[in-house]
Amino acid sequence: MSFLIGLDIGGTKIAGAVLDANGHEVAHDTVPTPTHDYDALVAACVKLVSEFDKASGQQGNIGVGTAGAIDYIKGSVLAPNIPCLKDQPFQKDLEKNNGRPVRLGNDADCAALAEAVDGAGQGYRSVFGLILGTGVGGGFIIDGKIHAGANGLAGEIGHLPLPFREEADGPIMECGCGQKGCIDKSASGPALMRLYKIISGKDATGSVINDRAHAGDAEAKLTLDHFYTCVAKATVAIIHTFDPEIIVVSGGVNKLPDLYDEVPKRWQRYAMRKNLRTKFVPAKHGPTSGVRGAAYLSR
User: Residues 65, 195: one domain?
Assistant: First the structure.
């Protein structure tokens, strides 16, 4: 039996798991990410792999998902929240220290892959995994394989400008990518909170805004109306670019219960074609999708 090891490296923690051939989790663990110490980061990954080898009784295939832009030729990662990775031969060092091949991928791509293999996108040929959380990201899967693109940028929907922009979408904000007006600043969790602050003058989390809207609060209802429109504009950009059969949503914003009815309703305003067939659904695996996708990457 082949065991699959997946590591999901984020700015605060490294989550890892080992899956059996049927996708069942054999063991998992989480350790802090040494964001400023490259040798410590490699060592932490190697230690997790060793732990999972012992749990499964053999050396497993290794897949690693990480935040940031992947240079698939050099095997390096540029991740602002993990600065120690800059200009380092990360993939080669992992392979050297683990004594076997390592597949490297973007975390959003990995999350999309997990949903395509045995999540909400299972059975569809083209799956776009959309992350609506602290930021906006995405990955595109065709026939069960990641389509990363020539530069590893396919699916980076968060760093396109929000299309069909109107004043109600909120202010044009500077983005960490160096541009202004990105989807990341209009369709993320912080964007929702910022929009509510502008409309109501109050601070509140997304879940509180949702609760207030369902209780009849006019300002919360108006905020969600504008926010769902922003997400609809962003997803129409996805449909016009990738035209997937299904868009699977993960991240903190995916817990808004009305998201999956309200966003497709608004597609009609902006899409070139009416009565779109694309489905818009919540992710099945949630916070574990990155780890599972990294493991499936190792196949």
Answer: no
